[in-house]
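ok posting inputs for the zinc ion job
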Amino acid sequence: MISIRRTYKNKAPKQLAGTNRTFKAAIRGMSAKDAWQYYKQHEKHYSYNTPETKRIFRNMNFKRCSFCTKVIDDFDTAMTVEHIETKHDHPQKIFQWSNLLCACQTCNTKRSTTPRDRKQYLDPTRIPDLERYFSFLPDGTIHPDNSLPPEEQQKADYMIRLYRLDRKDLECERREFFKNLLESDSFSSFLEKQDPSSQNIIFLSVFTYYRRCRERYGQQGR
Ligand SMILES: [Zn+2]
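and the output
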């Protein structure tokens, strides 16, 4: 994971804000359970994953998943909307922009409907320097960064488990990406100026970590 700057004011999705108002008016006074039922019955009439939302997420996230930070190929069809507070438990937040993040299908599915632990959850749009929470080994494994205080490491561990950022396929892909980073000469100059929009950086989290290590320990650092 890395920090993401959320789009606000005139650049936030307008259509979504309209849907949010209409939906909240419709469920006013209802219990969460009834509001959820109402949503399920009227799901067709309300949408959060619109072309507008996709467009804004594409720019905001540089076509990446907010959790594994992997580039989402075929963004318009493969990107999913992740609800920080789940739809089921917090139906009043289904269309609330600050509750939405962009995710790849796998990360979204791995968490599924698990409610969030507010004390542990790391919202990438609210935490600056989120990248310092995680470290990556050349074998592709992800770990809470051990330079952090234990309670902060616990949050990193929570996020790793919630979105299964330690899943085998990701480890394998990160290992491959790491290998390319270490071997490629051109990456050395590439590392100098971080360009999060570059789709050559498959995993922005791994790239950022490697770059940080390099700054800390010199060129051979990892
Ligand atoms: Zn992902």
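notes: The beta strands are 80-83, 100-103, 134-136, 142-144. Residues 65, 67-68, 70, 103-104, 106-107 surround zinc ion (CB under 6 Å).
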